[in-house]
Model the fold of this input.
Amino acid sequence: MPETPLPPLVFATRNANKVLEVQALLGNAYQLLSLDSLGCTDELPETGDTLAYNAREKAAFVHERWCVDVFAEDSGLLVTALNGEPGAYSARYAGPAARDQDNTALLLARLADRPDREARFRTVISLCLSGEWHLFQGECRGIIGHSASGEGGFGYDPVFYPMLEGGVSDRTFAQMSRAEKNAISHRGQAVRALVSFLNEQSVI
Ligand code: IMP
Done:
């Protein structure tokens, strides 16, 4: 008997690692397609000032042009003492061409005299499946350190000490293995919520 083709699902990202990571979690329920395999060379819009707005805007851009099932994610760091900054601007906090080190240095400078170091990473995933919209979220609370520690990860990882069950970790995200970080991270939680929803759909 010929095999039934898996339903295609587009992940609206240019990050090939993120596609592989989600495909591994999804198993054989869907065939995950990247923007490249769809033939999408456009830059996806990201014009909002919230993560939820940007995630939906990116997914809607692809859905409207290619009429496919699609999801997009947006993540950022929200610092309590800075009224939620840098939030949706996390990637370009220190300017449009800012590198991770520039953004982190600016964050540490803005927090220099602040005793309140509370922050949280947040991920929002917006999914359009059969024309219906769904939202998934993940959040990881933690503390911003006073200097960078660790070589792993990316972005603000070297200054972020996640909150664990017993209290604040003594290691930053940048000092953890990828598996350790995924188990507690905002992105890991949001992706697991998405995957469990998709797996439920595929058995109905
Ligand atoms: P993206 O939406 O996953 O591309 O994340 C946008 C920006 O938020 C990144 O460029 C980082 O500055 C920051 N960010 C998001 N997730 C993380 C993380 O897990 N660790 C450190 N920085 C992150």
